[in-house]
Amino acid sequence: MTSNLNLRHAIYWALFAGLLFAMPYLVSKGDLRTMIFALYVGIFAMSWDFLSGRTGYISFGHPFLIGIGAYATAILSYRFDVPVMFSIPLAVIITMVASTMFILPALRIKGSYFALVTLAFMELMYQLVQVIRPDLTGGTRGISGVETITRGAVNGFYLAAFLAFCVALFLWLLTRTRLGAAQSAIGMDEEALKGSGINATKLKLFTFVVSAAVAGLGGAFYVHYLGSIAPRAIFDINFVFTIIVAALLGGAGTITGPLFGAFFLTFLLEYLRPWLPGAERYLIYGGVALVLYMYQPKGMYAIAAKLRAGVMK
Amino acid sequence: MLQIIIQGLLLSGLYALIAVGFTLIFSVGRVLNLAYGAYLMLGGYAFFYVSQTLGMPKLLGVVAAVAVGVIAGLMKHRFIVKPLKGDMVPVEIATLILAVVLQSAVVLMFGDSSKILHSIIPGVVQVGTVSVPYSNVFAMIVSWTVLIALYLFIRKTHLGRAMQAVSMDQKGAAISGVNPDHVNMMVWGISGGLGALGGVFFASYTQLYPAMWVAPLIIAVAVVIVGGIGSIIGTLIVAHIIGFMEVMTTSLIAPELRGVFTMALIIIVLVVSPKGLFGREEIH
Questions:
Q1: N or C: which end of chain A has fewer CB within 10 A?
Q2: Domain range annotation of chain A
Q3: pLDDT tens figures, A262-274
Q4: B101, B219, B268: best mutation site toward chain A, by most A Cβ within 10 Å?
Q5: How far apart are the CA of B118 and the nearest CA of chain A, in angstroms?
Q6: Is the pLDDT reported for residue A3 higher than 60?
Q7: Is the pLDDT of residue A5 over 80?
Q8: ipTM, 2 dp
Q9: Closest to A115 (Cβ–Cβ): which among B92, B257, B258?
């Protein structure tokens, strides 16, 4: 599979990096802030895609992982004055450990049942965070005044872009290896995978842990960008909705697709703002997502591929 | 003690009603309807609109709510489930999106703030030292009536047997002259109506607010998973387990921990016994 890497891919990635680098010179500060948000959503969507888009184990509880990462670093740095350079890696490790809780049900159940367990995990976390040790988690109100790493939109953008780029490149390279090929086979036929002598359990564990590491990383940096965290902002079904829809509209199973899906969704929401200030936005945004999804469940990636095939003809 | 028993019984009856509509779809249509909670929201708001904004009789409000639920269910079947050919994962995701869309539609029409429903039947009845609102007693009686009627309908009537057949084996049912498509459509309608009816009661129990669909969805999921898909008796038993546990945690431990037990139960049961405690996948 490594032979799949060629010069063309290197050029694409270099162009992508260049575009991200040049972005602050091209767009306004306001758009840049929107992009920061889009990049974080993109990181979460890529994490979701690596787990669910590729293996078919649909997670409705991704905010569970993101929230653990975010809360871990927020508590460490705000309550215990741990420097950010230690608290973030620690948060990622904590998220990876916590993700192994997902693997337990995933060993026995699949499909809808798995989706439901992850949803239950998220709701459980939402309730527990408010009740258990509110002196640490800040209870219902959460924590505000968490140390921010960057000042200003440009720095924030570069940090988010760097993270998103690294995550995308890392996950993409991973899917190009033999490991990645085996991993996507989980989604196709798990029995056949076992039959070909691969340890499916280990492979699943690996997938969950990688996905969790990305989610935890994104969550941790996100909280240090926002400077605050609250249970309802994280463990929220609307947040699940944004992540999943971004991944699906971009193209499930494609890693880079979800990043573009996140940009599309975030900007759709942002550009509707001048015309529709209130709740109408979400109605249109959800409606567009639903229609697009019903029309092409494989996402924009498939639409782009179709268009390209049409042009080539 | 008496208070716990009475509140537990009232709440559990309601939970059983909410869960049974969900289990029907899961069993017959073989898909997880994540927009199920939205029926409750639609039902609650329809009741609010008819009885409190328009000032019509409350009974008419209930009828309107059920009608809205049935229509929503039928439309969901026609425009989402059928085009996606009942594929599990796409339907789950599309219904999740739909739930969010419906929530914002409700915000648009009724605003973000929560509303309090007038009780369906005003007044309270004294049982020993506990005072119980008539509305809640009414909700429990209606829930039980509906559940028993549904049970008899599925067991005794031709249509009910057709539903059983489809839940066991779509192709087999089609061969023996049942049109699975019709049955599916009907079940989506019934499920919508049940959900909306549950929503009227649920909203008068708590409050009417746009995000009210999440909590009952989780409860329905819990009851169905633990009780086993498609089992009406299992639904009834587990609704009582969950209802009583909730009332006991609320009154004996801490109100904030209300749902913790429910989530933990979902996780434990799914891991230990994925088919639920009374599990088969067909309705029975």
A1: C
A2: 2-236
A3: 888 888 888 877 7
A4: B101
A5: 26
A6: no
A7: no
A8: 0.76
A9: B92
Q: What's the rounded Cα separation, in Å, for the pair B142 and B120?
A: 12
pTM: predicted TM-score of the whole model, two decimal places: 0.84
CA distance B266 to A186: 25
A226 or B121: whose pLDDT is higher?
A226
**Min Cα separation B6/chain A (Å):** 26
The answer to whether A108 contacts B274, with C-beta atoms less than 8 Å apart, is yes
* Of A117, A278, A281, Cβ closest to residue B266: A117
Q: DSSP code of B133?
A: E
Is there a contact between B101 and A283 if contact means CB atoms under 8 Å apart? yes
Q: Given this model, what pLDDT does residue A214 score?
A: 92
Give the Cα separation of A67 and A55 in Å (integer).
22
CA distance to partner chain B, nearest, from residue A2 (Å) = 31
Number of other CB atoms surrounding residue B121 within 10 Å: 12
Residue B281 in any domain: the answer is no
User: Is the separation of the CB atoms in B19 and B220 below 8 Å?
Assistant: yes
Q: Is position B55 within any domain?
A: yes
Rounded Cα gap, residues A68 and A91, in angstroms: 8
Q: What is the Cα–Cα distance from B244 to B7, expressed in whole angstroms? A: 8
Is position B117 within any domain? Answer: yes
Residue whose C-alpha is closest to residue A245's, from A281, A209, A288, A284: A288
- CATH number of the domain to which B112 belongs: 1.10.3470
Residue B283 domain-assigned (yes or no): no
The domain total for chain B is: 1
Contact B80 A238 (CB under 8 A): no
| Candidates A64, A114, A118, A127, partner chain B, best to mutate (most B CBs within 10 A) | A127
- Identity of the highest mean pLDDT range in A61-75, A193-207, B207-221: A61-75
Percent of chain B with pLDDT over 70: 95
